[in-house]
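Kindly review this record before class:
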Amino acid sequence: MSSVWRRLLPREERVTLSDELRRAVAGRDWPTVQAHLEAMRGEREVVLDELAKSAVVREWTRGVVADDATPSLTLLLAASCHLWVARERSGSVCARCAPTPEQRQDPVALGMADSLLRAVAEREPEWVQPWSDLFIVALGLGTDRGHMRHLFDEVVRREPEHLPVHVQYLQQLGTPHGGSDDDMHAFAYGAMTHAPEGSSLGVLIPHAHLESLRTAGYQGKGYLRNPLVARQLHHAADRSVRHPDYRRGPEWVWVHNVFAMSFYLTGQLPAAREMFRALDGRYTRSPWQGMPGKPLRAHRRARHRSGVWW
């Protein structure tokens, strides 16, 4: 297939490990893995999550305990592996999202992750990832909202624009989790306006609208045809992805997909076209998995109807 035709096909964005890191994992060269992780900064969280998918890594970290001789990064990697095992049981991050109690995340794996993460948080008080992962543990256990807020505050105290924890906390404020649309949208607006212009947190506005639409059912698309919603989307884009100070972070493909889908559903096709062109064929399953049919097909249909064929 020619390169021209390949570009017509959306491709799912995936985290890729460097060849050297892959070789180190395959060869069980843990000092080299440790050195790679120590050299990383912003992308360390996503790399740890990707490493946790490896059976070789999970086997290596199975017996890791929080003693003084174990490096903090090894504890973090072991905790990521326990979180991966817990998620594999249910396929869901949130305990309240599980259809039945049997489909909730493995509480034993969550407990082991919790113990390791608390040890790292005490040892490395300025690191953000122990707290962001403790937030994920709390989601899996179905912890009360007060404790969730405490963990959220600990994350943003260390990294004010931490996008994943903002997204997860926003979802917990929605109607399915005992909150309300008003709470969710107020949080999204407050987070966006308190962040510097150019921040990726602007995506919380379209994400909140998609959450409201998902709660109402995707057949009720009239919700997104409200002119006020369109104005809010454009305002959010102007403060984030369309702002001169915007810089693409690790989640940029998801951010642009959320804006693309939101603009498409509101009928703002020129704005959707701009997002699709920036993506250049990249897509993420979220948010498209909420649309009727398969995510890839929904993305491709919206992309083509927005006038982007390459």
The chain is about 60% helix and 0% strand.
